[in-house]
Amino acid sequence: MDGVARTPEQRGPGSPVGPGEPAAGPVPPRFGVLGPVRAWRGGEPLAAGSPQQRALLAALLLREGRTATADELIDALWGEAPPARALAAVRTYASRLRKLFGAGVLVSESGGYAVRGTLDLTEAQELAAEAEKARAAQDPRTARKTLRRALALWDGEALAGVPGPYAQAQRVRLEEWRLQLLETRLELDLEQGCHAEAVSELTALTAAHPLRERPRELLMLALYRSGRQAEALAVYADTRRLLADELGVDPRPQLRELQNRVLRADPALAPPPAPAAEPAVTLVRPAQLPATVPDFTGRAAVVRELGEVLSAASGAEGRVMAVSALAGIGGVGKTTLAVHVAHQARSAFPDGQLYVDLQGAGARAAEPETVLGAFLRALGTPDSAVPDSLAERAALYRSVLDGRRVLVLLDNARDPAQVRPLLPGTAGCAALVTSRVRMVGLAGAHLVDLDVMSPEEALALFTRIVGEERVAAERKAALDTVAACGFLPLAIRIAASRLAARRTWTVSVLAAKLADERRRLDELQAGDLAVEATFELGYGQLEPAQARAFRLLGLADGPDISLAAAAAVLDLPPHETEDLLESLVDTSLLESAAPGRYRFHDLVRLYARACAERDEHPPSERAAALSRLLDFYLATAAGVYAIERPGDRTVDHLEPTAFPGTVFTDDADALDWLHAEAACILACVRQSLGPSTLRRAVDLLLAAKDLAESGASALGYEAAALAARDATAAAGDDHAEGRARTTLAQVLSRAGRFDEAGPEAERAIELGARTQDPWTRANAHNEQGIIANCKNLRAASEAHLLEAVRAFRADGNRPGEASALCNLSRVLVSVGRTSSGIDLVRQGIAIYDELGLTFRLANARYALGIALSHASRQTEALRELSAALQTFVENRQRLWEGATHFRIAQVHLSAGRPAQGARHAEQALSTGSIGGDWMRANILTLLGRSLSRLEQTDRARACWRDALAIYERLDAPEAGELRTLLRPVGAA
Fold first, then answer.
1. Are 170 and 64 spatial neighbours (Cβ–Cβ below 8 Å)?
2. Can you spell out the DSSP letters for 705-756?
3. Half-sphere exposure of residue 961, counting CA atoms within 13 Å on the CB side?
4. What pTM does this model have?
5. Residue 691: helix, strand or coil by DSSP?
6. Between the ranges 261-275, 487-501, 790-804, where is the mean pLDDT highest?
7. Neighbour tally for 455: CB within 10 Å
8. How many CA atoms lie within 13 A of 388 on its CB side?
9. For the chain, is the Cβ count within 10 Å smaller at the N or the C terminus?
10. pLDDT in tens, 557-591
11. pLDDT of the residue at 20
């Protein structure tokens, strides 16, 4: 669809309901027709009267201020069969409305009536027009956001409950317009890459409007882009059959064409790439710019941004001289980018381009007065006319440039003080500055921080140097190579140049050489280019405290580090730590990833670690720094755990810490911290699995267990748990091994990998009995009970869960007891003891309520919803599951969120609401769920059943085939049920 749908006779943006201004006095009312016909004055609702009176008001409002005659209103309210006193009734309704709204709102003119005020429909029209303009201006993000605002104005069916033929006709028109807006917004969703999220809404839309082809076309595309090609093709088959049966027609050409493109996996169906910038280079004097590299690659957004700044400075609208300052670490490609941008902008500066390497990273930076002398000579000033002092040279420089359009490229600047005298002072000129230091002291400068290349850009650069043929033959090795180079352009150029010069080498040979991180810097040598040299220059200029911070911070394995964690590493107060870190940011050896967070480039981190091994004395300080970091994470995570689970004894069984953590008093702040630090916490666990820190590392996993259920961090948590199990087993530490295996069993169970989880839990039970660790004994039995229930081993599950209840009670762990009771309730429900199961889960809820455990209460309400559904109490089940879903969403537990969508879908389907069932099943698929692939197969099975009830049989069977493939791979017993569902009708 091109553009955004409009209503017929759409008014222009900003138009009031009617012409003229409302009469002075009370605030004019606001009116709504995109739902029930309503009126408000300020925030107070106004009673619009009887249905017929609201019908009159609706007829006036929909004329948007134009006068309606009495005959037109009679026709709108009663059509061809008006009552005998219709005119009197109209006058009575109008009189009542006039009294309700006050003077100047409902007016009599030209033998009819008109209404003055603001209307939700008018606002929706204006927003739709804004969205259309944004889309035409190639701004789909704004268009999509604006359409969401427009659609949010609807509150159910337009003109709901309003009688009369006119209202009915307008309802149909407004609903058609709403659907057009919704289809356009969904189309924009797909343009923005939100195909997986759109599937759920499109599934519901096609169920509600089965003969509408555009939603089905969008659904096919969304499914295809989500990797569900078979379902996409099944949507077409269902549509073709439905149209033939209902209307006797074939699908429209666009739908048939899309089917063909899906069949041949047309690459054009993928989201379109961003348009590339087009260079425009023309030779002009003085022309001091270095040659641009012929293989310049990527950086399209930054090139475009800088180009726009330079273009604005040189144009007629330019009022001041423009300065753009590009900052980044050595080797990130600042000079190459700046030269490339400057060449593109040459035509905008016909009076010349000046260039100088200011040598700011070296021991002896260029003096400004020397540079000014060279610039003046290049601009035609005789040697004899060049003054001696810096101030005089700078003044003459600005005078010479006055009235000219000149671009000045100041490369490799040391600091703002070196740059200021070299800046042109007049409009029409521009300066482009590169530096390892952010030029925050350069007033009015447009600051740009240059990061490393994206993987796609890095591979493209590598390919352009090495050659398409060699890279195409070993694409994975090429990707490994650019990743080993940290996506740093200088390092990629060095590595690619080595390979290009050695025809006997394969890409795999180079990748293998770079695989060993400790040798990476030594390998990246080519002629006079040395990555290490670029870092050595910066490090050698640091003060002792800065150098120590640089070395120690490089030891931590996390992707970045917070200010508080850095303070723990350095054993310094936060304010001193912040000063040191900010000074390192200014040197570009450290990056400020976000306020209060810092990070190293990979190669800089390796260099920092090499410095630590070489320069840090005594060597034990390295281990002490990492131990403080582990203590900080463990102490803080334990505090978060305690806030989330009051009364849970887990925190009482954790290893003690010597360094304090951050203390939170607010639940939301605590949870925010945990999720923000997820990658760093898991990296710390894996880095701390040595003998002296092993038990604390395992306990950090226990304290951060919410990360295992968040979805975003689940895979990283599993990897850390596997590493912890192996390390504890190798160390022979039964206590730590029992906890690690219990944790791993929990992770594997929630991923649906019950055959792997069961042996881990069984071994943990043995270790718990041997060490008498109360945490392992209770939690291992609880987990084994869950696993056995999922494998339909009901008796074994009940036995383990009863033992877990006893162990939690013996430890005084009431939240643990409640969890085991809720798990036990699901076992009883599964064997038909539904009443007992409901009683058990209510006992668990009572414990959670008493302790104020809102988050854990959601798990209990989830279990209660399942139990009530088995008891055919669907309304109550839906209430409990919806409440649980809200809590999971608020606490960012995406996997539990997905599982709850699945259970809600089950309730809807059993209650005869397959469209709602399909929508929630799709939401479960897009969100992910506790249970991994096994649960995904369950969801696909349920989705297929819902679609089958909606007579979308081809897509239903596609879902069942996908589910069967998963079940067969897992050797799950549910495969038999799927084979039955897929058996042809009438087959024996």
1. no
2. GGGGGSSTTHHHHHHHHHHHHHHHHHHT-HHHHHHHHHHHHHHHHHTT-HHH
3. 12
4. 0.61
5. coil
6. 790-804
7. 12
8. 0
9. C
10. 888 899 999 999 999 999 999 999 998 887 667 87
11. 41
Rounded to an integer, the average pLDDT of 499-509 is 82
Tokens of 792: 């339909």
SS3 599: strand
Token output for 501: 């010069």
Q: How far apart are CA 694 and CA 267, in angstroms?
A: 49
Residues constituting the chain: 988
Q: What are the helix (H) ranges across 645-710?
A: 667-676, 678-687, 694-703
At 247, list the tokens.
Answer: 């209307």
- Using CA atoms, how far apart are residues 334 and 449, in angstroms rounded to an integer? 10
Q: What percent of the chain has pLDDT over 70?
A: 90
Check: CB of residue 708 under 8 Å from CB of residue 719: no
Mean pLDDT of 915-922: 94
pLDDT score at 364: 66
Would the pLDDT of 935 be above 70?
Answer: yes
d(CA 433, CA 303): 14
Query: Which regions of 188-344 does DSSP assign to beta strands (E)?
Result: 322-327
Could you read off the pLDDT of 511-523 as tens digits, one per residue?
887 776 545 556 5
Q: Which two tokens stand for residue 15?
A: 């138009």
CA distance 285 to 79: 80
CB 23 within 8 A of CB 12: no
Q: Is the pLDDT score of 394 beyond 90? A: no
Buried b (16+ CB within 10 A) or exposed e, 560-597: bbbbbbbbbbbebeeeebbebbebbbbbbbbbbeeeeb
Taking every pair of Cα atoms in the chain, the longest distance, rounded to a whole number of angstroms, is 106
> Helices (H) and strands (E) in the chain — how many of each?
44, 17
Amino acid at 448: V
- Give me 438's structure tokens: 């952010």
Within 714-872, residue ranges assigned H as helices are: 714-731, 734-750, 754-771, 774-790, 794-811, 814-830, 834-851, 854-870
Q: Do 921 and 943 contact (CB within 8 A), yes or no?
A: yes
| Position 128, amino acid | A
